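Example (one chain per record):
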Amino acid sequence: MLCHDALAMSSKLLALSLAVLLAVLFVVSLCLGSTNLLTPADALQGAFATIGLAEPLADYQAIARLRLLRVATAVAVGAALALSGGLLQGVFRNDLASPGIIGVSSGASLGAALAILFIGGYGARFFPADELPSSDLLITGMACVGAILTAFLVTAMATTNGRVSVPNLLLVGIAVNAIIGGLLAAIQSFVLKDYEVAQALFTWLFGRLDDRTPFQVGLVWCGLLLAASVLPFISFELDLLAGGEEDAEGLGVDTPRVKLIAVVAASIAAATAVSVAGQIAFVGLVVPHLLRRLAGAPHRPLLVLCVLGGPVLLLGADLAQRLAFGDDRLQPGVTMSLLGGPFFLWLLVRNRRRLETW
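Predicted structure:
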C-alpha cells in the first residue's frame, strides 16, 4: 500500500512537473522565431487574439498566429505519437514497440502519400476531382486506413501459436518499413517532374510543423481525443496483460478485444499526427520508455504522462533546433531522427539478452 501511494505521488509530481515545463516551452516557443522576438505578454495576447479572446497586436498579430498554429501542432502531434507508443508498448509488452518501429507510421505515410497523388490529379482516372473529399480529410482518412492495415498485417505476421513474438514483431516491422520506404521512393520518382506535387511530398516526408491550418491542427486534436477516449476502458486490462496473456485471460481479460482497441486507437493517433506533420520518428519510442522508468508501469497514469511528455520532447527539440540555427532549416522530423536513432540503438543493446531468450 505504501509503495502504491508513493508511486501515485511520484506520478502526480511528474505530471505537475511536465505540465509546468510544457507551459514554459509553450510560451517561449510563442516568443521566439526566425523573425521577431515577442515579449511573453505580447505573445500571449497574440495567441488569445487568434482565438478571439483578446485585442489583436498592432504590428505582429500575423506572426503570433503562425507561431500559435505551429506550437498547437507540436503539442497535438507530440501527444498523439507518445500516446500511440505507450499503447503499443503496453499491448505488446515491450519497450521496443512504437509506431515507427513496427510500421504504423510508415503505413500512415503511404496512405497520405497516395492521397497527395490523388489531390495532385494523378487519381483522376479513378477518382474525379469533384468527387474527392477535402484534401485534409482525404489525407487523414487514407493515413488512418494505411496505419490500421499495416498494424494488423505486422501483428498477424508476427503471431505464432496465438502469441506475438517480439523478435518476429521487430523483424516484420523492419521488413514492412523497408517495403513501404521503397514504395514512397517510387512515388517520389514518379512525380519528380511535377514540381508542386514533388515538393509537397518532399517537405511532408521530412516532418514539419509550420504552415499548418487551424483545420489541420483540429484534425490531430480529434485523433488524439478519440484515441485517449479508450484509456478508461483498457488501462487496467493492460496492467493485467503485462503479466502475460495466459494469466490475464485467467483473470477474465478479453485479450483479443483489448488488443483490437489498443492497436486501433494507437493507429488513429499516429495516423492523424503523420497526416498533418509528416514523418516524425522516435517520439513514440522515447517518451513512454523514459516515463515508465520514472513513474512505474501502471498504464492509467503512464498514458496520461505520455500525453504531457510527448509535447515536451517535440516542442523542446523544435525550440532547440531553432535556437541553434536561427531559422527552420532543420525540420523537427530530422531533429527527432538524430536524437532517437542513438536511443533506439541503446535500447537494442540494453535488451540484447532478453531478445535472445524470446
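Caption: The chain has a mean pLDDT of 83.
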